Amino acid sequence: MTEDSLTHDVHRHPDGQTVTATVAGDWTALADEALLAELHDALDEGYRNVIVDAAALTFVDSTSLGRLVGLHQEAVERGGWLRVVSPPNVVRRPMTLTGLDQVFEVTPDREAG
């Protein structure tokens, strides 16, 4: 795994409340600085709901899962929420084992989210 093994695209929805991060590759603590900065910027701009489209993730480490919890808490403090959609089993399983699927919503696909 390298620092650039995570790619992302952050889309601000025209509703002014929801931002979607589409992520791909290995989500590690070494690779997520730019993604987190963009999401925190969106929350600072007044967006309060965060959707993480995880369909193309191949790995997520425990530090990054903790950062998802932090983003969730920040969104909730602003009256919003965080939702992870379409996580592959390699991402969904650690969320389930750690109980994170009870902390924020994890949905099988974008339509359900």
Describe this structure in words.
This protein is of the alpha/beta class. It has one domain: Transcription Regulator spoIIAA (2-Layer Sandwich), CATH 3.30.750.24. Helices cover 34% and strands 33% of the residues. It has three helices and five strands; from the N terminus they run E-E-H-E-H-E-H-E. A five-stranded mixed beta sheet has the order 1-2-3-4-5. Strand 4, helix 3 and strand 5 form a beta-alpha-beta unit. Helix 1 runs parallel beside helix 2. The protein is globular and about 30 Å long. The termini are far apart. The model has no long low-confidence stretch (mean pLDDT 92).
Entry keywords:
113 residues; alpha/beta; Transcription Regulator spoIIAA; 5-stranded mixed sheet; globular
Summarize the structure.
This protein has 113 residues and is of the alpha/beta class. It has helices spanning 33-44, 62-77, 89-98, and strands spanning 6-12, 18-27, 49-60, 81-85, 105-107.
What is the secondary structure topology, with strand pairs?
Blueprint: E1 6-12, E2 18-27, H1 33-44, E3 49-60, H2 62-77, E4 81-85, H3 89-98, E5 105-107
Parallel strand pairs: 2-3, 3-4, 4-5
Antiparallel strand pairs: 1-2
Helix pairs in contact: 1-2
Relative strand content: 25-35%
CATH architecture: 2-Layer Sandwich
Largest sheet: 5 strands, mixed
Placed side by side, the strands forming the largest sheet appear as: 1-2-3-4-5
State the helicity in percent bands: 25-40%
Q: Structural class of the secondary structure composition?
A: alpha/beta
Give start-end ranges of low-pLDDT stretches: none
Radius of gyration of CA atoms, rounded to a whole number: 13 Å
Could you give the order of the helices and strands? EEHEHEHE
InterPro entries: MlaB-like_STAS, STAS_dom, STAS_dom_sf
Organism: Cryptosporangium phraense
Pfam families: STAS_2
Domain STAS: 23-113
